[in-house]
Each structure stands twice: as C-alpha cells, then as structure tokens.
User: What shape does this take?
Amino acid sequence: MGRHQRLAELMDVDRDDLVVADLGCGTGRTVRALLSANPAPRLVHALDATSDLDDDLLHDPRVVSRVADLDARLPFADTSIDRIVSMNVAENLTDPAAFLLECHRVLRAGGTAVVGHTDFDTALFTGPDDDLTRLLVDRFVAQVPQWQSRADGFMGRKLLGLAVDSPLALADVRSWADPHRRFDEGSLAWKISMGMLAAVRDDPALTARATSWVESVRSLADAGRFLFAVTDVVVVLRRDA
Ligand SMILES: C[S@@+](CC[C@H](N)C(=O)[O-])C[C@H]1O[C@@H](n2cnc3c(N)ncnc32)[C@H](O)[C@@H]1O
Assistant: This one.
C-alpha cells in the first residue's frame, strides 16, 4: 500500500456522507485515494496555495478545489468538517501550531485530522562513498529549495511535539519508510538527488563530486544494487466528542 492509500485509510472514512478536507492537496494524490476507497466521502475540499489539482479531480463533482493560504484562517465554518488530511505541508507554514488550532476549530466533535510529514534527514541512499552520501544529505536538509519560502528536513520527527501541544487529542502515531529501488528520472530518489545537486551548486568542487556520485548511484540502480528509503511520520488527531 502506498503513502496516499495509507493516509486515506488512517482518516477512517467509515460512512459515505462525510465531508473531508485535504489541506495542501498538491496534484491530489490523497484526494484520489480517498475517492477510490469504499466508502468514499461525500465531498472533498481540496485546498492549496496553487492550483495543481489533476484535471480529472478538478472536474469530479465530489471535489471542491480552492486556492487558500493555510497560514491564514481556514475557509470553513466552526465544526463543519468530518476529516482532515495534510501531508508534507507543515514545513512550509509560518506557524504549524496555529494551523493545528485552525484544524481543531473546523473539525466536528469526534472528527479526525491526519497530519503527516516526511523526515528528509532520514533519507537512506546506497551510494559509492558513505561520507559523501552523508554530506550530501546534510546539505540537502539544510537548504531551502528555490520554490519554497521555508523548509524543515526534520519536520517528520517534530510532528509529535506539535500534536501533543495542540488542543486535539493524539489518537495514533505511525511511521513508515518504503523501499525504492528506482533511480530513473522522476523517481523519488532521483528528485531528492537533484535537490542535493542544487544544495551544493555554490561549491564547484563539491558539485563535481556530487555529479559523479549521482552517476555512480545510477550505475548501482542499473545493476539492481540501489536502495532508497525515507521516513514518513503521521499523527492521527481527534477532536474530543
Ligand atoms: C510537498 S507538497 C504536498 C502535496 C500533497 N499533500 C502530497 O502529499 O502529495 C506541499 C503542498 O503544500 C502547498 N502549500 C505550501 N504552503 C502553503 C500555504 N501556506 N497555503 C496553502 N498551501 C500551501 C504547496 O503548494 C504544495 O502543493
């Protein structure tokens, strides 16, 4: 089972009349998993700062797509939402604790919020040189990508503290690290390695070493000897009934 199916399952959509919200939905991978489940929710509010939702989801009558800033008040009435999911969004927010307060405000009594984050510092790569692999992961985690205003490569492990300090009750904590063996363009491991190259671009000597590291990883993958994993952490929160 993949990440988005797991998230959908943790949301515990146990009836077909529920109203759910994916906060920071991206292209809608969790929305898709929710709508493919049985029972599926009646309505999915898909919120994001940008409008990247896949076309088929955009035209699905069960999906309401909205551009919204999750650093601001959520565009929902008090106690109007049955389930919330938010994956890999917290590191972008000015105040993740305020975001959880807002989740508490809009959730119905007994409602669930599933908040997850990848802990990028746990990235595991088979590489040709362990010290260089560690250095590149460290540089990647320390750098804020150009397309984000903030990032936190340790956000996965910080979620539990945020959850405990929030007014929501902690119902469960999960974590997983799925094995990936692909390193072709577009694969998760390849995307992170491109982030590593971007993180060292101000250092020509390190860029040369990182470029040859990427080529070695590609050869390891071609030979079936490559493994990549990274840990996702998920907290399941409940608004008291
Ligand atoms: C890494 S993507 C995750 C997308 C999706 N949840 C997933 O797991 O595939 C983070 C998403 O959060 C959105 N985001 C970041 N900051 C935001 C903000 N302040 N308000 C609304 N959306 C935001 C980004 O636009 C992006 O789509």
Residues 62 and 214 are 43 Å apart (CA to CA). The longest strand covers residues 107-125.
